[in-house]
């Protein structure tokens, strides 16, 4: 474990140096400096924990004390004097108190751009929602990164009521944690790269997302969540002026105190009732019958549900009460109704004709029988 801490710390050995074109860096000199720093860290470093941008934690040897004043605390290796248009390659060696730790690692060849425009983050931005007991509702922000990207960013997170700005310095973690979000809220997120001297800012990349709903964490009807309105509100108007109101509950009946139905017309014309009427319904019932007075009235119907501590949520719908009209002529001429009417009309005549023909046939048989008897 100690070697791991040394590896993490000693990568910061050459915290700053100037690169001159086509001149070899004094590797032996920097190697001795790194070894000196490793010995100081090993002797005076204090085991501590730091939190990364993705919310995880890692242990390291903290050298922020009077005995380690000569140790550079920065975790970045800053290089100055790079020439645009020239390709560079860097090699990093981890050094411990007793010498090299592991193999030397090399970076790919990189050309420094001469463009004054700061490169914006490469999209798309990816957000993964989650929840934990310490940070509440969270989201993890990720986007594709490359070696040419900036290490400094400005992040802005906003919803309909608040806006938060945050300066970020990237670390080894693959994502950025956004903690303590609100349940079931639409968020807008924008992130832009910033230069090391904070004088330049790139074009921002934006995305929208919705945080986790409370019911997915605590369950439907939980008192830890705000109550939700009913769904599938339906109103059936009967010819006698009554209406059947039905809905789908947003929680189990044991988590609901009661329902309240409030309805009224939008005008007094044609006998409409402008005064608000209220009907209370038990928690285990999801329908109610009310009366809609008047003709040609538009009524507003609101269904309010209360949770066990009295908090409410509501949804509403409108319904038009039309006068009862006579059956239209074209409705009566529909083929199926014409067929039924024809059967009703012609069936008695058919039965009567059949009955008459049968009596006539019996009369003719009787006459023939009489003639045969006389002949004999």
Automatic annotation (TrEMBL):
Mind telling me which residue stretches traverse the membrane in this protein? 337-356
Tell me the first and last residues of the signal peptide.
1-16
- InterPro entries from the UniProt entry: FN3_dom (IPR003961), FN3_sf (IPR036116)
Please give the superkingdom of this protein's source: Eukaryota
The cross-references to CDD domains, in alphabetical order and at most eight, read:
FN3
- Keywords from the UniProt entry: Membrane, Signal, Transmembrane, Transmembrane helix
Locate the coiled-coil region(s) and give their ranges.
none
Name of the protein described by the UniProt record: Fibronectin type III domain protein
């Amino acid at each position: 474990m100690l070697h791991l801490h040394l590896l993490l710390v000693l990568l910061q050995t050459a915290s700053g140096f100037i690169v001159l074109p086509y001149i070899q860096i004094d590797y032996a000199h920097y190697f001795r400096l790194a070894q000196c720093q490793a010995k100081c860290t090993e002797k005076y470093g204090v085991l501590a924990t730091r939190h990364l941008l993705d919310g995880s934690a890692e242990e390291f040897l903290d050298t922020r004390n009077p005995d380690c004043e000569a140790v550079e605390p920065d975790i970045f290796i800053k290089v100055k004097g790079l020439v645009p248009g020239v390709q560079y390659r860097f090699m990093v060696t981890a050094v411990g108190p007793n010498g090299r730790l592991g193999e030397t690692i090399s970076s790919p060849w990189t050309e420094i751009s001469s463009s004054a425009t700061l490169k914006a983050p490469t999209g798309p931005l990816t957000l993964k929602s989650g929840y934990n007991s310490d940070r509440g509702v969270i989201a993890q922000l990720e986007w594709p990164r490359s070696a040419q990207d900036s290490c400094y960013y400005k992040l802005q997170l906003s919803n309909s009521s608040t806006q938060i700005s945050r300066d970020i310095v990237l670390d080894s973690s693959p994502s950025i944690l956004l903690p303590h979000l609100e349940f079931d809220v639409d968020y807008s997120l924008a992130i832009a790269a910033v230069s090391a001297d904070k004088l330049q800012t790139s074009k921002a990349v934006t995305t929208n997302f919705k945080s986790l709903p409370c019911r997915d964490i605590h369950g439907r009807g939980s008192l830890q969540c705000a109550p939700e309105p009913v769904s599938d509100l339906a109103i059936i108007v009967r010819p006698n002026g009554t209406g059947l109101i039905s809905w789908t509950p947003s929680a189990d009946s044991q988590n609901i105190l009661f329902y309240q139905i409030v309805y009224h017309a939008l005008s007094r014309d044609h006998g409409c009732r402008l005064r608000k009427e209220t009907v209370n319904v038990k928690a285990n019932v999801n329908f109610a019958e009310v009366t809609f007075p008047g003709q040609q009235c538009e009524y507003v119907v609101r269904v309010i549900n209360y949770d066990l501590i009295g908090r409410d949520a509501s949804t509403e719908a409108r319904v038009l009460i039309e006068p009862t009209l006579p059956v239209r002529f074209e409705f009566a001429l529909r083929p199926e109704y014409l067929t039924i009417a024809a059967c009703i009309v012609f069936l008695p005549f058919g039965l009567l004709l059949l009955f008459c023909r049968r009596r006539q046939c019996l009369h003719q048989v009787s006459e023939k029988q009489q003639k045969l008897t006389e002949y004999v």
